[in-house]
Amino acid sequence: MLDRTGAGRMIRATAMTKDPTMRFLLTLAVVLTASVASMASAQMMHGHGHGADGTGHDMVGMPGLRGVDATPQESGELRVMFHHFDEIERSVENLPNGIRTVTSSTNPMVMEALVSHVTGMIARVEEGRDPQVIIQSPTLTPIFAGRDDITSEIDITEEGIVVIQTSDNPDMVTLLQTHAEEVTDMADRGMQAVHERMMQ
User: Fold this and answer.
1) Cα separation of 6 and 32, whole Å?
2) Residue 169 burial (CB < 10 Å; 0-12/13-18/19+)?
3) What is the Cα Rg of the chain in Å?
4) Are 111 and 127 in contact (CB under 8 A)?
5) If residue 43 lies in a helix (H) or strand (E), which one and from where to where?
6) DSSP string for residues in 107-133
7) What distances in angstroms separate CA 91 from CA 36, 121, 138, 159, one per listed residue?
8) What percentage of the chain exceeds 90 in pLDDT?
9) Are 101 and 118 in contact (CB under 8 A)?
10) 52 CB contacts (<8 Å, ≥6 apart)?
């Protein structure tokens, strides 16, 4: 916040100084002080200080996890997964007609969020209810549109959450495999992977 008392003293000093050079320097100091204070205040008001990843995004509230049709619970699950991405293990096997993924975590809270998210998203695809989360992958839109071409199986095993998705449509197979790669990248690097994808 601007020190108004200090700024007032500088303004009065400027008015009393007869030396043109000193008047210029003091005026410049007042302007710079006000500008820096204004910028700092704006950052505080908008809550966009630099996060630990240096991107300048709000890494606490994560507003990008909200969506047109996403519930607070779903956004909360995403928040848990992004905050604890380094505790998530994930493997992907590309099949001739789709994918087989295994996702797990030794953290019970993260595992609970994973199970709820995965089962919930597959149910959404089958029902055609795209959550339209702000940061979601662009591959999800055509996946939702072509949901009738996808067969999904979910199993909770000792390995983790096993998902097999297949399709007789070659284009859909490519979409499923591309999306699986994007999800793995997010599991490996967290929000940094999202930021880089959105900047492309």
Assistant:
1) 13
2) middle
3) 25
4) no
5) helix 20-46
6) SHHHHHHHHHHHHHHHHHHHHT----B
7) 48, 18, 21, 10
8) 47
9) no
10) 59
CA dist., res. 187 & res. 47, Å (int): 26
Q: Quick check: 156 pLDDT over 50?
A: yes
Tokens of 18: 């007869």
Strand-pair partners of 136: none
Strands across the sheet containing 151-156: 89-95, 98-104, 161-166, 151-156
Q: Where do we find the tokens 């996890």?
A: 65
Tokens of 3: 């020190």
Which contacts of 16-24 are long-range, i.e. CB under 8 A and separated by 24 or more positions?
Answer: none
Give domain limits for the chain.
Answer: 4-46, 63-199
Q: Check: pTM over 0.70? Answer yes or no.
A: no
**How many of the other CB atoms lie within 10 Å of CB of 168?**
11
